[in-house]
Amino acid sequence: MNPSILIVDDNPAMIQVMAGMLKGAAQLRFAMRGRDALDQMAGSAPDLVLLDAEMPGMSGYEVCAAMKADARLADIPVIFVTGHGETEAEVRGLEAGAVDFITKPVNAALLLARVRTQLRIKSLTDELRNLATTDGLTGVSNRRHFDELLQREWQRCARTAAPLSLLMVDVDHFKRYNDHYGHPAGDSCLKALALALVSVAQRPGDRVGRMGGEEFAILLPDTDAAGAQEVAERTLQAVRVLGLPHAGSLHADHVTVSVGVGTYAAQAQPVPIADGDLWGLVSRVDQALYAAKNAGRDCWHALGPQG
């Protein structure tokens, strides 16, 4: 897939000039105001931003600072494009978080070379980050990354008073599955289950993580208890539809899962919600999962909303 570049400049002629210089190098997007650029990035993050430093309203420096303060945008490289060539202007741009600095009038060869360099670095960085945050077997978030996502959404929950739901999903009698079919088949089973879970976590903010062994988790931001229970029911059905044979199961002829469900019904907070409340939610979801196991497996159980 081609990388994308967002060109931000209040001068449409300048946008047209740079677009011509970069034709064929990437997918190009445009914005003429800082706030519009941030809104675009929030909807679909580009791989690189070419940012005019001096714009009316919200300056390029302010846009860059806002990006670096937003975890979703902080890793996007920014090249400042400005008519000021003084050292002070370059230092200010680099201190704001930019990776490079180009002065106007823009030289086509220089622009293209620097853009290609930053896109190459971004690609390598993304690959390394993916290796560090992804479970090698299933392709979903690993435990460490999932915990970071959970913490981030918890903090957002504190700011916005939005509900937050969490599901724990455990494969029923998985040790017996491995004993009967062998570990390679067990690995294939986990891969198939991970894909099924991703299929039910449908919104962009929903995330699936492998917590270890045969246990997975689904993070559902902005989801109340009723919505979380609906996802839990879809999870059970998605796994049943796979129809993976399980001769070692004690209650079914196919692979099934048990699901624990928990929701934090957030209230407006004068101070950030304590981290202890987050881990209290995790503990409650674990209890719900054990309750589902004790209820006969292949079912979900939810404790009342915490808040």
Structure overview:
The chain has ten helices and ten strands. It is elongated and about 75 Å long. The protein has helices spanning 12-21, 34-43, 60-69, 87-96, 108-133, 143-160, 174-181, 183-200, 225-242, 275-294, and strands spanning 4-8, 27-31, 48-52, 78-82, 100-103, 164-171, 207-212, 215-221, 257-264, 300-302. It has 307 residues and is an alpha/beta fold. Strand 9, helix 10 and strand 10 (300-302) form a beta-alpha-beta unit. The chain is 48% helix and 18% strand. The strands form two sheets. A five-stranded parallel beta sheet has the order 2-1-3-4-5, sandwiched between helices. Strands 7-8-6-9-10 form a five-stranded mixed beta sheet, with helices on both faces. Mean pLDDT is 90; it is low at 268-273. The longest helix has 26 residues, at 108-133.
Q: What's this, in brief?
A:
The protein has 307 residues and is an alpha/beta fold. Helix content is 48%, strand content 18%.
The count of helical stretches stands at 10
Distance between the termini: 43 Å
Spatial order of the strands forming the largest sheet: 2-1-3-4-5
Structural class: alpha/beta
Order of helices and strands: EHEHEHEHEHHEHHEEHEHE
Major beta-sheet overview: 5 strands, parallel
Average pLDDT reading: 90
Percentage of residues assigned to helices? 40-55%
- What is the alpha-carbon Rg in Å? 24 Å
**What fraction strand?**
15-25%
Q: What is the count of β-strands?
A: 10
Globally, the shape reads: elongated
List low-pLDDT spans: 268-273
